[in-house]
Request: fold
Amino acid sequence: MRALLFLWFAWQVASPQAAEHMQAGIAADKQRQFAVAIKEFRQVTEIDPSLPDGFISLGQAYMENGDYGSAFAPLKHALELNADSLPAHQLLGYALLAQGYAGEAIPHLQLAPDKTALGIAEIQTGQLAEAVANLQAAQSAHPNDPDVLYYLGRASGLLAKQSIDTLLAAYPDSARAHQAMAENYFVLRRMPDAEKEYSEALRLRPGLPEAHLALGEVYAGAFQWPKAEEEFRMQAKLQPGNAEAAYRLGEALLEQGKVHEARAELLRADRLMPDMPETLYSLGKAASLESDPAAAEKAWTKLLSIEKQSALAAQAHFGLAGIYRKQGKTAEAQREMQEFQSLQGANQPQPAGKQEPQH
Amino acid sequence: MLNIPLRISCGLTVMLWAATLAAPVFDVNLPHGLDFTLRNSPTAQKYLIETMPGGVALLDYNNDGLLDIFFVNGGRVTSPMQMPENFDRHNPLYWNRLYRQNKDGSFTDVTQQAGLANAGDGNYGMGVAVGDYDNDGYPDLYVTNYGKNILYHNNGDGTFTDVTAKAGVAAGGWSVSAGFFDYDNDGKLDLFVTRYMDWDTKHNKDCGGNYHTYCPPEEFPATTSILYHNNGDGTFTDVSERSGIAAKKGRALGVAFADYDGDGFTDIFVANDGMQQYLFHNNGNGTFTEVGLEAGTALSEDGRRLSGMGVVFQDYDNDGRPDVIVTELPREIYGVYHNDGNGSFTYRSLETGLGALSSGSSGWGVGLEDFDNDGWKDLFVAQGHVLDNVEKIDPSLHYLEQPLLAMNHNGRFERVDSGSTAPVAGRGAAFGDLNNDGWQDVVMTTLGGHPQVFLNRGGKAHWLVITLRGTRSNRDGFGARVRVNGQTRFATSAGSYLSSSDKRLHFGLGIAEKAKVEIDWPSGIHQMLNDVHADQFLEVREPEKP
Reply:
């Protein structure tokens, strides 16, 4: 963008003497000799003080030199000369934002085409809904830009926090307030507190959407499988169309060795949301545990048609190798084991000690 | 706890059942005289050895009919460790200890008079194996260490002699669990020694960032375990290379023996930490082939590596074939590998109920023993996390835990009250009938504390305890398959973690007052005894001729 601006500016230069300094400034800037560029652009402003482009270039050179404060004056002067100059607005907006003057930056950035800086400025001024909207627009334009992704996440999080803070302040004893507190504790891995808050939320409002599911996950994280099963079952009863509830219930049952029941729930999850790799893997596992190799093979083969390189794919190959080994299909078993081993290196989770505090 | 019907009115039966079910299985106490403390010496340096000891053995060293107890101690660790390493083992605080059981159930410390004091200043203690390697009728002791291991020959007069140098079994490095078995069926007990990793205090690491924790095993190179062949003249030969054992490096912590494929030769299961588990198939010609992956015992059902620590190789579902149970770290669940009978195993942790019972626990010493004498082997696991500060990192995990006692109901395990009230950092566990009442007891070691002795409260079911007396086979009868009324045990003192259990074979008989006993000796001799009366300690001598 810097080069484009300079090229555009160069055509606007009127005086040959000023044009000469402008070209020298652009050349110095290209070579990142910003001190030289500043000197040349200052010459342009002195030779032709009515030309906004000289002031814009000078402001930009200051910014490139890391001296955002010095860029304010030339850029503001450029806007005095031409109040509609988009480059001047954009650069001044950047400079003000960089110096922490987000509120002053916003009117200038609102005129610029790039919404990223505007979204950032709006985060700083607490205009979170606007920030989210502008950063979503920026993300559409730059889908994989890490800065945009970061600030969009931050804005969304702050907006959520703002909403929750309002909830907690206005209705501290409400079921939703306890649910929000529980979610916070869950993230902090303070499971006893999370359990307490979810339980209170459900006491205040039985059937609170998602609360049973979340409480079940708290219990599952603490290896309290019967309690987890109970909560997932409640969620599944409240929302028979919720595939995740069916899947989680199936998993909790599987952990307890209630294979037949688990399989029924996992089949239900698969019907509600077909082709979910996690469901297919667990479905194959449950079928295998129930001595139904044909069904296990079907589920794992389906999984492998969806995912070929993931950790779940490796596990499916391992499971298939076991089935074929027991069936005496040596060649197939070896093939699956080779597939498993080739994927294992790439996908094997870090040994326990590295992923969590274990030995 | 009893699964036998009580011949009383129905209503009263229900009440009695409820009462018995609520009662703990064991009385947990410290018998008079048993004043051992396992001193592991935790330091800020987080030397890995500190969290790994220590073993316990139940043996009748003086053949008076009462089980005695031998404990392996750790040592003094300085922070940081000075070179050359000195663990202050000449200091009585750090001695291993032998306690002789008295007739009144109390114990007397006989360490010094038995010649077992001072296990070597350069040795930090780990585990113990027991076996009569010279077939003289007295159990010998093999103590493993970080450092050099020690073989103590039982002189038969209440004393032991360190014969390590002559025997050639010092090993070196970091040895952990060990066990005696007869891999070539020559009638002499050989010795298998697991080694954990290529590690020393100079090359220790501190992991866990600000939390400063013990490092996971993957931080250090794997190493080989050792197989010693008993030459029959008081010496052993290291056959690790030629047997194929050294072909597989591992991070071995536990070892157990059984003939899983019924070919008459004892196989070896090695519990490795953070990697594949090894099943060494005995080829019958002095060599072994590692077949864990093919047999289905190497990984979890999901193909994940396990943090194998303790292991037991016995038949949990009374189908006559030895199964494998491996204790692990949290979120891995203890591995139950069911022996399908065709050389392959099926992972059955979930169906047996162990998944839900173990997913949040760290298991070490482990045993399959029929604690309620109902004819099904129950499960006991010493538990406690590796990291002494694990709660700071993950509040759902615990450094101190109560042991797991799970009763076996037709192959499915259900937790019951062991009687333990205080959580501890459990490590070693040995199993046997301490008070000769026909009900199996447990001794468990705890890091930094006294051992816990679990004395079985008993009941009314019948039992049979068999002592094997090998003649053509090794005198201990290790490797024999013994079937009693549809149950099977594989004779061994090895298994668990760092520990050695009573060599006598215990069977719960339920309501049966007589038993049919079948023994397949390692020599190949098949022996059968009919109408054996219940509730007795029976010595069975191997016939001299088939």
Summary: Chain B touches chain A through 50 residues (CB under 8 Å).
